[in-house]
Queue: 2 jobs
Job 1
Amino acid sequence: MSKPSALVIDDERDIRELLDITLSRMGLQVDAVGNVADAKQKLATQRYALCLTDMRLPDGSGQELVELIARAHPDTPVAMITAHGNMDAAVTALKAGAFDFVSKPVDLGILRRLVQTALKLGESRRGMPVIDAASKLLGNSAAMQLARATIGKLARSQAPVYISGESGVGKELAARLIHEQGPRASAAFVPVNCGAIPSELMESEFFGHRKGSFTGAHADKDGLFKVAQGGTLFLDEVAELPLHMQVKLLRVIQEKAVRPIGGRDEVPVDVRILSATHKNLEALVANNTFRQDLYYRINVIELHMPALRERREDVPLLAARVLERLAGGSDAQPKLTPAALAALNAYDFPGNVRELENILERAIALCENGVIEAGDLRLAAQASRTAPNANMSTSAASVDPEDEDDDDNSNGPVHLDEYISQIERETIEKALLESRYNKTATAKKLGITFRALRYKLKKLGID
Ligand SMILES: Nc1ncnc2c1ncn2[C@@H]1O[C@H](COP(=O)(O)OP(=O)(O)OP(=O)(O)O)[C@@H](O)[C@H]1O
């Protein structure tokens, strides 16, 4: 098999030579040129497995080359060599389609990893197993098809992606797919809920610590960046990062290196950062609770996951798959009556796909003979407390003939639901008080996950 080839564009002879030697030792055949015109000529005649370009060139800019390659040779990964600390140039290049950047003076360890990632992108084009995204991130609506196509493209880049969208829309699922479809798939995907780590433990959790660096540090501990080495770190609920951690994270992204607590040296890290929050991060930047510079760096590319009510046509497919999964392969899979399906189709789903899953799980428990009636969905009572569009929710409830006389029936199921909610609310409020409003401790006390607690707080309108 012929060697993969690389094109290096830098006007400094020393750097060209250094890159040439390093890449040649990695088994690449290297062409090294010193300006834009020569680079264009090479690109017109040969296919490259990788391009590395300097930012400032005598007859133009590296940015111009990045744009040209993204447009005319989209299969060729191009990385920008930036001046130390010039993240603005790196972000601009990533936005234009560069797959990564490396800053000067070039750290050879980081460069080697970058090259390996680029070569893997080539391998993935040559028949590595293809992930069927449509069977994981379900939905045939135009919005979901676009989301899946965007995810496929983002998987090829190393740029930080910020995934926005309401709670339960599938942000984590999207992040997993970006990881699984990309060159980092064989390394770890490490999701971390930034709201669930106590502020004082955060630095040690992220960066690790050395034995004896603080009371209780009985042994060396690897941080999450180390665990995710070569893979992806997914910062869920990134808005919950305290300001002191935001500063530290910014440095890591810039330097591509971490320093464990008590450690003397910085350790290079090769981790792609994906982040998400259901909060409006831009608004948090505006009121100074989230650093603008960090926002700018984690949000190089934004992927917006649409709310379920904006793609109602996906509800029947999602409902069918959830029922299938909950039935666990048994033949006695519960069925929705047409009225129940109509009620779901008209419902607003403030908690999105996660809420749909919860509704169906509860309906399976409530229904008789494996037939889910509209009343088993309990949409009306739930919607009156949570749906932003109460009219829509009421119309959903009216699809169910059984619910029509519920108002006159004080023993009816809606009242049972409210009674249960009341108990839930009291129990959660008591646990919150006892845990001094620490949500992680509250969730532990209640024996539920942090996410489940957050969902219930939202559902019950507890602030
Ligand atoms: N398009 C989809 N197809 C199949 N399942 C989905 C889809 N979207 C979401 N889900 C499911 O809904 C649930 C919630 O998804 P996920 O945790 O990815 O949402 P999220 O946006 O990260 O939520 P949060 O903001 O609360 O962290 C999961 O069980 C996930 O598998």
Job 2
Amino acid sequence: MAEPSPSMISLEEAQALVRSHVSPLETEIVPLLDAAGRVAAADLMSDMDVSPFAHAAMDGFALHVADIAQASPESPVDLDVIAEVPAGGAFEGTIEPGQCVRIMTGAALPSDADAVVKYEIVDYLGSNGMPGSRVRFTAPAKPRANIREAGEEAKQGEVVVRAGEVIKSAGVGFLAGCGVTEVPTYRAPRVAIISIGSELVPPTERPGIGHIRNSNGYALAACAREAGAVPTMLPIVPDDLDELTRMVKDACSKFDFVVTSGGASNGDFDFIKPVVETLGELYMTTVNMRPGKAQTFGVVDGTPVFGLPGNPAAAYMGFELIIRPALLAMQGYTQLERPHIQARLTADKKKKDPRRLLMRATITRGESGDLEVTPAANQSSGLFGVIQRSNCVAVIPEGVTQVHAGDEIECILLDVDEGVVL
Ligand SMILES: Nc1nc2c(c(=O)[nH]1)N[C@H]1C(S)=C(S)[C@@H](COP(=O)(O)OP(=O)(O)OC[C@H]3O[C@@H](n4cnc5c(N)ncnc54)[C@H](O)[C@@H]3O)O[C@H]1N2
Ligand code: MOO
């Protein structure tokens, strides 16, 4: 059995290495809606109290608590309705003892009212409860009942989103309410995706003998986009040293990060390692993981270049586990890892290869209530469909040769959707 080569580094070392060669990109100002899912690059402050005024939380009657303090079913209190305030309106007058104001949810509270009683518990005494009528109260109200106070959401000048926070959908609404309509954030990295291989044709073509469609380029571009980056798929490059050298050099002058797939191993036509070594610094060639041993990383003219292996699952794992965290760091994120959870294996599994095994797998909640994980039957690194139909990667560490049904193992949730039971 082949031993890992001395230059082979662990997945964590590979992640740290790539991470050490990237930093957050410069900041840019984006319209508020475009800030969803992105990292605030500065503290964001509210330009006013939110809400700016105390207002009714219920449709009902604004009044003085003191007026109905003694109200009960046996000794009800009747008040004169002197005005109606809709949302967007304002009552400028004074509520005298014995009076109340009909008020709608969201309407500004009359300045001298100190509670709102919802209309369901008010007796209209046969009238319509509109101004000019009398309405009956049979219970006291608590001071400030059904009132949303001014400044409850934010105070003027308060930092409402801190630098470094990821702005969620609710945060976009929060910021809108606070008058923040433009947000400083880190620029999204422009990522070049280069698919290497003389056998490759675009997916629009029907491949002839010996040829296949370029599926890696599409998956990697989708992964990059999902990571918040802006991918550009460059033309397919054949297994040709000069052509690849030209393409990588050119891409390094135009993009923030260059990703290639294929030609990363030691075959006669595998050229990404010599290209990176010739053009710049080569820092990594192999990682102790399966699939995905052949992972090349270096820097050319200041631009990180990552050569993923050609096998689809190997390329995908390299992107998701090593490139993705770096792209996130370039956008200012500090949470760089996918969620990890423990689940019980549903079957025994033998492992011949000493590398860390990343099994495409599916987590479900078993009848006992425990999370259970079932590796896909076909673990070939040539398949994308298996990843499409899986919801996690189940990990068997380096060196471990066997795991058993019922063992708890670490699972990395990839691209999770609402269907995943946690
Ligand atoms: N003697 C050895 N041969 C191989 C080893 C090894 O250790 N010793 N490792 C195998 C493993 S594991 C992998 S992974 C591959 C990695 O090699 P390359 O990065 O050079 O990949 P290629 O040879 O270019 O391609 C491998 C495979 O993937 C297909 N491919 C490539 N690009 C695409 C694409 N854009 N879309 C879809 N499929 C693609 C390609 O046609 C090959 O079938 O090396 C093994 N060999
Ligand atoms: O990189 Mo290969 O499995 O390790 O597909």
